[in-house]
Amino acid sequence: MAKKIYTVRFREAFVDGWVSSDDTFLEHCAHFGVPRQTGYQWVARAREGGLDALVTRSSAPHTCPHATSEAVVDVIVAARKLHPTWGPRKLRPWLLERDPSLDLPVASTMGEILKRLGLVPERRRRRRTPRYTEPFAKAGAPNVVWTADFKGQFRLGDGSLCYPLTIADAFSRFLLRCDGYPAPDASAKQSFESAFREYGLPSVIHTDNGTPFASTAPGGLSKLSAWWIRLGIVPERSAPGHPWENGRHERMHRTLKAECTRPPRRTPPLQQRAFNVFRREYNDERPHESLEQKPPVTAYNPSPRPYPRRLPELEYSDAHELRRIDTSGRFRWRGRFVFVSGTIAGEVVGVKRASEHTWDVFFGPLLLGYVTDLRPELGLIRYGK
Q: Does the structural domain 145-298 have CATH classification 3.30.420.10?
């Protein structure tokens, strides 16, 4: 049953009527339709403070033993200002890691405090599509899969363009490199070489289909991915138009954009300094939900596969016939030249019989296509069967 609401004027009429009434108090309450206990309260309050005491009183407690102290609120606010893109679920474990004695409220309460103080911007609600299955299920340990991508370009204060290249470990989310380049081209090799020297080699590198990770050559090979194969690394690419297959990496880019590009720095060296600060904080301090609110550095170990001093040769079985690609991108087969791609000029491919009239062409473990003696005049490697 809903609680009945009495106006202040009604309460005043009740008290005034009781003062001049000849009825018993029980009869007076019945006449006004007021519970006896409520009537007693009104009369007692009027005797103590006059009719002004009959105004509606708040039912809220005078004190709240569970209220967050001002000192703790100040700590929460200071942490938010230090990390303006972090939410309460990251701020709380970060604060407790530095001072376990802090009596912090739960994350939801911290969020309400930040919202009340105007430290949480309003977000426009978006229509969401259903989530796809999490990629990289096979990345059950560090260095099984690394992910790499060029984040979209942005313009620096001096007018130059910056393309951030990021390389991360899919299992631990450890950010191995975050380097700014003037263009997304083959010069990115130096970041991978630096990461290989410091952390060793992964088993797989997952990228999109853009330059310099892939090309229109057979097998999607680029000079960069061909180099990875020579190192014993398998190039793995998202399906065209499916960025969510690299979703973990894309999510990291949102954080990178919020913390390093708004506003952009004035020059490339200053922007790289911001990337370096972001990478250190992302790896060593920023809690990650998938890591039980611990930073990526706690889940990452360098690879046991060191970067070799000399590039190893590709290995083929005895069933393969070996052919070297010439400077024109061709190899000689059955008295004729077959064009593959200039991307792997100077490299060795393995040709293995697939049927009576066809031979598959491999670059290490990667199947590039096949050659056939049914139409030798084409002089090209072919795709499909």
A: yes
